[in-house]
Write a structure and sequence with these properties.
The protein has 217 residues and is an alpha/beta fold. It has 6 helices and 8 strands, in the order E-E-E-H-E-H-H-E-H-E-E-H-E-H. Strand 5, helix 4 and strand 6 form a beta-alpha-beta unit. The two termini are 25 Å apart.
């Protein structure tokens, strides 16, 4: 892990790339479990596909394994600082010496809220945004990012009305918007260490994500 200084604190960053050349950049924001081995593996898989990846650890090393633990650590997170941390990690990525053209953001569940706050604050800086089973309110009229969304059919945290309302909000921007709903899946279906993991849906979501990122970045 690397780290950057933000005011009076250090922010841990996981940084990975496939080699020593320049690559399109991706910022990854973890779910409410923290930056665990699953999200480290996702970063490494993205790097193997030809991307420079930066992932901030918003919990500074804490990792939750149960929903009660995740609820406690996510509730203790200062939302304003978390948005600042995500934005600082993005600045680190966009000024990285090995960055080629193209900047994208990927976020899952809780991470979507913080990532999309940054997307709204920096509407011209992000070429592609991928969200996994997470939505956010706010105004996307000024944004130009392309958006790809992956959602579970049986998700009590993000039911269909939430997803459709979110779709309408992001469609107000100038970028293309594509949402996929995966039959018989739940929240966290993409995360291989969760009991809700669905291998077929996760692999399809992965292939769609890589194809989308290559096209947009």
């Amino acid at each position: 892990m690397e780290s950057i200084s933000i005011d009076d604190r250090e922010l841990p960053l996981y940084v990975t790339a496939p080699g020593s050349n320049s690559y399109p950049g991706i910022l990854l924001v973890h779910a409410w479990w923290g930056f665990n081995e699953c999200f480290r593996d996702i970063c490494d898989r993205l790097a193997s596909e030809g991307f420079l990846v930066v992932a901030p650890d918003l919990y500074h090393g804490d990792v939750a394994s149960t929903t009660d633990e995740a609820d406690a650590v996510s509730s203790a997170l200062d939302a304003t600082r978390a948005v600042e941390d995500v934005s600082a990690a993005f600045d680190f990525l966009r000024t990285h010496q090995r960055l080629a053209n193209g900047l994208g953001v990927i976020a899952a569940s809780m991470g979507v809220y913080y990532a999309l706050r940054m997307v709204q604050d920096r509407p011209d800086d992000i070429d592609a945004t991928v969200v996994f089973y997470g939505t956010s309110d706010g105004d996307y009229v000024e944004t130009s990012t392309a958006v790809l969304g992956h959602f579970g059919e049986n998700d009590p945290f993000e039911p269909e009305p939430n997803v459709e309302a979110f779709r309408e909000r992001v469609q107000a921007g100038d970028g293309p918007v594509t949402f996929h709903t995966y039959p018989d899946t739940e929240h966290w279906f993409f995360e291989s260490d969760r009991p809700e993991y669905d291998e077929d849906a996760a692999e399809l979501a992965w292939s769609r994500t890589v194809e989308f990122l290559r096209a947009e970045l």
